[in-house]
Design a protein that fits this description.
The protein is mainly alpha-helical. The chain is 56% helix and 4% strand. It contains 15 helices and 3 strands. A 3-stranded parallel beta sheet has the order 1-2-3, sandwiched between helices.
Length: 340
């Protein structure tokens, strides 16, 4: 409730109103052995902790919307209550010609009371609580009801968040590949070797292998590059909804790939201290596998793409089979056992 002022009452009036016309009559209610203890939210002023706990644990919440406009603190606490609990909320508001409609909750029933006729309000509150306590009336939070009936709303939000995170991770992988392309091109030129690289980072592997005969002859230990460990892909793929809708066996394969990927290139920098052509080739291949797999997982999460599930999984296994780290798994014998 507001506790400083309303159009017709000051702080003293509101304190007296709470004690005399809200707290006292409700604490006299008895339904069987049930009794009530009434507290006002501003009794404890830590909005981030105690009020949230009180709103969650309260069996009933009475929300006084009095004032010409919606009181921000009151509306905030009402919103919290509707979002975290199905326990009943009772809305009341002082009658006044200057009151503006509160459109956000215009469809919720609000009991309007006159400061000159508090007994009518007391009667309403007592009858309402008794009916709710006896089960003669029921209350369901409209917020939680929507979320329960429409889980797709929450799922869609989580999917979009995961897709965005995966897209950011993909950008990091592409940055790695651009750095690798720049290193190879610059070092080859420093060795008086003229090679051509496409501006498209996706064609990096084609460019490398097209010039492999010449590039493999260079002394790569004289070049220098270090890649910092980055995106936590393992965390992204173990968060809802990815872990809930992407097949667990495929996620397990991808996690195995990620472990090997990190162990090979990010656990230490020894690979980069003694750089050689084989390391460059493997890193180029594995980053392409990683990027393609991220695209596949994004496609799986993105319903709008309408790509058949079987095709996505087939593409996933094809891409994973290109990894040096999963050669044994995708050998004929191992793959046949997996399919069974």
């Amino acid at each position: 409730m507001p506790f400083i002022e309303t159009p017709t009452r000051n702080q003293g009036d509101l304190n007296s109103f709470f004690e005399t016309n809200i707290k006292s009559p409700i604490e006299k209610i008895k339904v069987g052995v049930t009794e009530f203890k009434v507290r006002r939210s501003d009794d404890t002023f830590d909005i981030t902790k105690q009020i949230i706990k009180d709103l969650y644990s309260a069996d009933y919440v009475i929300c006084d919307l009095s004032g010409r406009q919606a009181n921000p603190n009151v509306m905030y606490e009402l919103g919290l209550k509707l979002a975290i609990s199905n326990n009943p909320v009772i809305l009341i508001r002082e009658e006044n010609n200057e009151n503006q409609r509160i459109f956000d909750i215009n469809t919720f029933y609000t009991f309007h009371y006159s400061p000159l006729r508090y007994k009518e309000l007391e009667k309403y509150l007592i009858e309402k609580i008794v009916k709710l306590e006896k089960g003669e009336e029921k209350f369901v939070s409209p917020v939680l009801e929507i979320l329960e009936k429409e889980p797709s709303v929450v799922s869609r939000i989580l999917k979009i968040e995961n897709i965005n995170k995966l897209a950011n991770a993909k950008s990091t992988v592409q940055a790695w590949r651009r750095r690798l392309a720049a290193l190879v091109l610059m070092y080859a030129k420093s060795c008086s070797m003229e090679i051509e690289f496409s501006d498209d980072v996706n064609l990096l592997n084609n460019d490398l292998f097209k010039n492999e005969k010449e590039l493999s002859k260079l002394n790569w230990t004289e070049s220098r590059i270090v890649f910092r460990s980055s995106p936590t892909f393992d965390i992204l793929i173990t968060q809802p909804p990815t872990i809930e809708i992407f097949p667990h066996q495929e996620l397990s394969i991808f996690k195995t790939f990620l472990i090997e990927f990190y162990n090979a290139f990010f656990v230490s920098d020894w690979e980069w201290r003694e750089l050689n052509w084989d390391t460059i080739k493997v890193f180029a291949t594995e980053t392409l596998v990683l990027e393609d797999t991220i695209n596949i997982i994004i496609g799986f999460l993105n319903d709008a793409l309408e790509v058949p599930r079987d095709k996505i999984l087939k593409d996933f296994h094809y891409v994973m089979s290109q990894s040096h780290f999963l050669t044994f798994f995708y050998s004929r014998k191992s793959w046949q056992n997996y399919e069974k």
